[in-house]
């Protein structure tokens, strides 16, 4: 038993996140009265939501950060949807999709759908949108669709994508930004095609206004093609400071606050009128290592660092035991996560020390580290530093703004390690590709270790799900054996709400859809 | 050469131009020197190197600093402060939508400070040397030494989360709901006002003591004028200039403290805007806010001088 | 920046002294003054204790400041931990004691930078005069027009995050204030008769500045510097709160406050110790500054 913010928590290391945490996190905190009655969904009401990040843009193509999806999915539908718990692909604007050959993907589109501006959704609109993804100079998703050679309307409601090479990740990419279809009419009408602040999609809510870094306001789309949303509208307030954000719910000034961290969960737990929920997340905490040069070129040093961490404790102290204290990049139970290697590294100081000694660092070693400067990041770095120090690995830390740390470590190749959260991509192969491929921006070394490329290519051109899973499990083992990074724990999506809010699902990607959310009167 | 108040205003407005240029150039060079590449932030979480280079070119980050500055200055002179690099929102609109919140907060704190500080100062001066005087002077010292945001957090814990008398966060538009906006601004304004209370109390006290101890007042007293009449008619009139000057100088300080207070109370003001934008290296916004803040501060001081000159023509003559 | 004095004092401290003719060299009995001015006595005593705590922290502190105990997080005050523990189970009292070093370091650094830039600049433009003075004064006005914390935020951004950089930024905001005071003082002293006399005797410019101008013009700066130490301390807390002054795992009071704010609803008592430490120290600097001002300015003394 250990003590933490949340009191005594009996077993933290091996909770089944996928099945358990929603129930354990949510229900346990639910007041008994609320548990007794099961209220029926009701239409009406405006949800007052709060999130801590201002979106960069409400054009899915020019935005950049994951929390943008809190707002984007209100207004936009994707070509392909995903199950919030398993990320299994689901029909959305495309009713079906199929690789007719390894380099041709054919999408059948939903009929009778209209954009908020009244223009029809059809093959023409999708072709326009996908071409805009690749050609608009401000598009941030060009690389996502780099594999696409040609997009054609092969029928009024059928679109075919010709690929340059086989790519099994493409359907998953169409659940992401590139798949969020923007009204072509709105783009053509906008000056320079810039719809950053004038989002028009087919989603369950229509855009009203966006006061920068303050408020995004949407109202119900009465003409929505799917099940009608329950809410009349959503007022999404942006409050940058996390504690202040929680205070809006505590003080009754909002109904739900998104993207919180474990500290705020502890706060909410003290208030019987609030419900705090933690759900598994594809976002995980790690440290990128530059394995191309310097001391970390030696795999033994990287392995020593990995053996020196006590991940269940990290998860416990830093995420209140709400995340997963293991060394996989994905939450436990996720299909691409191999349970056999999920706990490949456990705390073993002797092993860490002997590996260091074998590498010629018997007296310990100093690692130049970059980290973010916010209080939570400082706390992570302090706990991690204390654990590594036990094995004789001392961190020499430079805190900086997130983008600055990226510039120092990835562009200027300073230091040996960068502590950061990452992940949150819909397809696991893409997650590996964006972190470890030689072309990946996040790979400071810009090299691939022998054996990586074969696995990467196989994960891209294997279409059979069972075989693909097998390849990805091998990839997980490869990354761990070679200690390509220093994974610490997988995080959790944390929200705090009043008991009046129902039907909210943050999803594994922390990309919620609000159209099934409803509020008690 | 003009004399009197209009002359002074004209002269001061002339001096404004070089000050503004220096001020904006200082900010521009600072922001320019910041490490961290705005292009990288625009490109997003999973940017490729080519995309970053492309953005650098699109936004002109690859051009020399002076070229970028004069480009900005030229536009600014025509009233165009550009667009935010990140949200693409017009900088002028951003500032105009936020400035009222900050100005309300600053004015509110100033009024609170004056309403409390001036009577305290008078009280202390008229009871010089008594226990009351000592208490007031000591409390004033505390007011200067207390970290504003710390006080703000304590106030929130007590009065918003404890008693629920005041909202914990946010702000309401002063134009749409004037009364409610004051209600929202109360706690942050109280947290901000301690310094003003302290400085005003202390300065009013010593200015008043100086006046009351002067030969002129002693003469009046010798003529048999009551001490109440002396205080109101002669003492306070003479320290009005001190009060105004102090209040004017406090405006600059209040805008400073507002940067942190706005973060504590989630007030969408310019302080919040500039710290957020400076950290994100959003040049146009930082520049725009700096320009507007400097303008506000300078104009406030000008207003104080004009008021002083109106009360006392000798001031105008001396500039 | 919570710089209540910063702008106000240039008005109040500089003006009367600039008006005054040169005071005779102060020769006073330190202990007698201290005994007479009880506030200065208490402030100085408090600050001395603080300096001693900073120096002898390893001896006094009950625990190592960075020793984590992850089994005992955010514990309330107890016999073992008089001020409780922080979010990593570190002893708050020990961190507070070690933090006094960083507090004094931070404040001195900021003021030191301000003096190093501001004083020579002020003397230089005041002494040379002419167009140099014109241009210099405009630049000073331009920088002074900024709300100081806004300037500090921008400078910290330029220099990079960290305690030292944040304090350099604050020093940068101090510099124009000191420069303006020095310039005004230099002008007064320069025009005083005996400087002209010295020039007549062929004294070099450097000699003039070092022997005659600096000693006579520096007095109001001493007052300002003492008051600025308080301002710097408060600024450090503010910048740490905005995540600009972070320097882990070293403890600074501002950093402790910022960290405690993270947990304010869970362990509000953690907010109090660093908050009061900052408050009392700022108070001590302010009180001392006021006392020195009264001592140096005969016009105030008589009141």
Please tell me about this protein's structure.
Chain B: Pfam families: BPD_transp_1, BPD_transp_1_N. Chain B: Residues 99-304 form the ABC transmembrane type-1 domain. Chain B: InterPro entries: BPD_transp_1_N, MetI-like, MetI-like_sf. Chain B: It is found in: Cell membrane. Chain B: Keywords: Cell membrane, Membrane, Transmembrane, Transmembrane helix, Transport. The complex is a heterotrimer of chains A (521), B (319) and C (303). With 521 residues, chain A is an alpha+beta fold. Chain A contains 16 helices and 20 strands. In chain A, the strands form 5 sheets. A 10-stranded mixed beta sheet of chain A has the order 10-11-12-3-13-18-14-17-15-16, with helices on both faces. A 4-stranded antiparallel beta sheet of chain A has the order 6-7-9-8, with helices on one face. A two-stranded antiparallel ribbon of chain A has the order 1-2. In chain A, helix 9 (299-307) runs antiparallel to helix 11 and helix 15 runs antiparallel to helix 16 (465-481). Chain A is globular. Chain B is mostly helical. In chain C, 74% of the residues lie in helices and 0% in strands. Chain C has helices at 4-19, 30-36, 38-55, 57-60, 92-128, 130-144, 148-159, 163-191, 193-200, 205-217, 219-241, 253-262, 269-296, 298-301. The longest helix of chain C is centred in the middle third of the chain and has 37 residues, at 92-128. Chains in contact: A-B, A-C, B-C. Chains B and C meet through helix 1, helix 6, helix 7, helix 8 and helix 10 of B and helix 1, helix 6, helix 7, helix 11 and helix 13 of C.
């Amino acid at each position: 038993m250990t003590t933490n913010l949340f009191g005594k928590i009996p077993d933290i290391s091996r909770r089944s996140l996928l099945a358990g945490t929603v129930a354990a996190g949510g229900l346990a905190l639910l007041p008994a009265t609320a548990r007794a009655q099961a209220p029926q969904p009701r239409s009406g009401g405006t949800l007052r939501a709060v999130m801590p990040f201002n979106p960069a843009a409400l054009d899915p193509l020019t935005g950049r950060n994951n929390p943008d999806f809190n707002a984007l999915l209100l207004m936009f539908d994707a070509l392909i949807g995903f199950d919030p718990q398993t990320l299994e692909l689901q029909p959305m604007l495309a009713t079906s999709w199929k690789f007719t050959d390894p380099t041709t993907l054919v999408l059948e589109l939903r009929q009778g759908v209209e954009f908020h501006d009244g223009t029809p959704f059809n093959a023409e609109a999708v072709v326009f949108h996908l071409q805009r993804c690749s050609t608009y100079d401000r598009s941030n998703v060009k690389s996502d669709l780099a594999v696409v050679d040609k997009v054609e309307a092969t029928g009024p409601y059928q679109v075919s994508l010709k690929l340059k090479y086989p790519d099994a990740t493409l359907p998953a990419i169409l659940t992401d930004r590139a798949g969020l279809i923007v009204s072509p009419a709105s783009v053509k009408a906008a000056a320079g095609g810039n719809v950053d602040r004038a989002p028009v999609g087919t989603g369950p809510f229509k855009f009203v206004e966006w006061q920068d870094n303050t408020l995004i306001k949407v109202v119900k789309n009465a003409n929505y093609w799917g099940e009608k949303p329950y809410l009349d509208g959503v007022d999404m307030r942006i409050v940058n400071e996390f504690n202040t954000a929680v205070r809006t719910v505590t003080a009754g000034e909002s109904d739900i606050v998104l993207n919180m961290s474990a500290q705020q969960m502890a706060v909410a737990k003290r208030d019987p009128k609030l419900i705090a929920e933690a759900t598994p997340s594809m976002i995980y905490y790690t440290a990128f290592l530059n394995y191309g040069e310097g001391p970390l070129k030696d795999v033994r040093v990287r392995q020593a660092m990995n053996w020196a961490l006590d991940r269940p404790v990290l998860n416990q102290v830093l995420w209140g035991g709400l995340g997963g204290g293991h060394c996989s990049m994905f939450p436990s139970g996720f299909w691409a996560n191999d349970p056999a290697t999920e706990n490949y590294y456990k705390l073993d100081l002797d092993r860490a020390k002997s590996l260091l000694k074998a590498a010629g660092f018997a007296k310990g070693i100093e690692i130049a580290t970059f980290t973010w400067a916010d209080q939570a990041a400082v706390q992570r770095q302090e706990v991690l530093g204390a654990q590594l120090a036990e094995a004789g690995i001392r961190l020499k830390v430079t805190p900086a703004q997130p983008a600055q740390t990226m510039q120092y470590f990835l562009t200027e190749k300073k230091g040996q390690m960068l502590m950061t959260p990452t992940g949150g991509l819909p397809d696991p192969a893409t997650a590996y590709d964006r972190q470890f491929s030689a072309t990946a921006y996040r790979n400071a070394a810009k090299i691939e270790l022998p054996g990586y490329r074969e696995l990467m290519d196989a994960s891209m051109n294997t279409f059979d799900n069972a075989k693909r899973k097998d390849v990805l499990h091998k990839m997980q083992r490869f990354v761990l054996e070679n200690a390509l990074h220093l994974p610490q724990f997988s995080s959790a999506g944390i929200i705090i709400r009043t008991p009046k809010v129902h039907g909210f699902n943050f999803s594994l990607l922390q990309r919620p859809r609000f159209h099934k959310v409803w509020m008690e009167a | 050469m003009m004399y009197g108040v209009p002359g002074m205003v004209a002269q001061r407005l002339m001096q404004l131009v070089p000050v503004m240029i220096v001020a904006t150039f200082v900010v521009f060079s600072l922001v320019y020197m910041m490490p961290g590449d705005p292009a990288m932030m625009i490109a997003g979480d999973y940017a490729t190197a080519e995309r970053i280079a492309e953005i650098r070119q699109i936004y002109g980050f690859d051009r020399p600093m002076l070229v970028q500055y004069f480009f900005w200055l030229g536009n600014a002179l025509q009233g165009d402060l550009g667009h935010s690099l990140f949200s693409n929102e017009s900088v002028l609109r951003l500032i105009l939508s936020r400035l009222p919140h900050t100005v309300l907060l600053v004015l509110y704190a100033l009024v609170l400070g004056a309403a409390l500080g001036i009577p305290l100062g008078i009280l202390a001066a008229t009871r010089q040397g008594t226990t009351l005087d000592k208490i007031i002077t000591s409390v004033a010292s505390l007011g200067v030494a207390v970290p504003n945001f710390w006080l703000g957090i304590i106030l929130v814990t007590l009065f918003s989360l404890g008693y629920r008398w005041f909202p914990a966060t946010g702000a309401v538009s002063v134009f749409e709901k004037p009364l409610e906006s004051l209600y929202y601004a109360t706690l942050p304004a109280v947290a901000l006002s301690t310094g003003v209370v302290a400085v005003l109390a202390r300065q009013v006290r010593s200015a008043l003591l100086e006046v009351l101890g002067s030969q002129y007042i002693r003469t009046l007293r010798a003529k048999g004028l009551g001490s109440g009449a002396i205080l109101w008619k002669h003492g306070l009139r003479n320290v009005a200039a001190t009060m105004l000057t102090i209040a004017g100088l406090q405006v600059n300080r209040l805008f400073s403290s507002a940067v942190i207070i706005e973060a504590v109370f989630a007030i969408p003001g310019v302080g919040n805007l500039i710290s957020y934008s400076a950290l994100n290296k959003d040049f146009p916004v930082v520049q725009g806010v700096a320009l507007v803040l400097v303008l506000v501060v300078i104009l406030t001081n000008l207003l104080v001088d004009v008021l002083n000159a109106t009360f006392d023509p000798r001031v105008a003559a001396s500039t | 920046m919570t710089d209540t004095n910063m702008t106000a004092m240039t008005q109040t401290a500089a003006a009367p002294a600039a008006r005054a003719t040169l005071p005779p060299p102060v020769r006073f009995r330190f202990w007698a003054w201290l005994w007479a001015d009880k506030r200065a006595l208490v402030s100085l005593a408090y600050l001395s204790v603080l300096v001693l705590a900073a120096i002898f922290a390893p001896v006094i502190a009950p625990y190592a400041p960075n020793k984590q105990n992850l089994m005992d997080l955010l514990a309330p005050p107890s016999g073992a931990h008089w001020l409780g523990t922080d979010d990593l189970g570190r002893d708050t009292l020990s961190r507070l004691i070690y933090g006094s070093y960083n507090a004094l370091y931070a404040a001195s650094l900021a003021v030191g930078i301000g003096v190093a830039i501001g004083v020579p600049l002020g003397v230089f433009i005041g002494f040379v005069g002419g167009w140099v003075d014109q241009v210099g004064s405009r630049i000073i006005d331009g920088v002074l027009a900024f709300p100081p914390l806004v300037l500090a935020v921008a400078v910290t951004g330029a220099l990079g995050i960290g305690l030292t950089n944040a304090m350099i930024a604050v020093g940068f905001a101090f510099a124009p204030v000191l420069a303006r005071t020095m310039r005004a003082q230099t002008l007064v002293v320069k025009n005083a008769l005996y400087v002209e006399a010295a020039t007549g005797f062929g004294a070099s410019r450097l000699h003039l500045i070092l022997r005659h101008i600096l000693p006579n013009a520096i007095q109001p700066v001493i007052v300002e510097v003492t008051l600025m130490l308080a301002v710097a301390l408060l600024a450090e807390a503010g910048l740490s709160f905005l995540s600009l002054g972070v320097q882990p795992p070293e403890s600074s009071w501002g950093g402790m406050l910022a960290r405690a704010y993270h947990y304010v609803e869970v362990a509000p008592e953690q907010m109090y110790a660093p908050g009061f430490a900052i408050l009392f120290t700022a108070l001590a600097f302010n009180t001392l500054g006021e006392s020195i001002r009264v001592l140096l300015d005969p016009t105030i003394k008589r009141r």
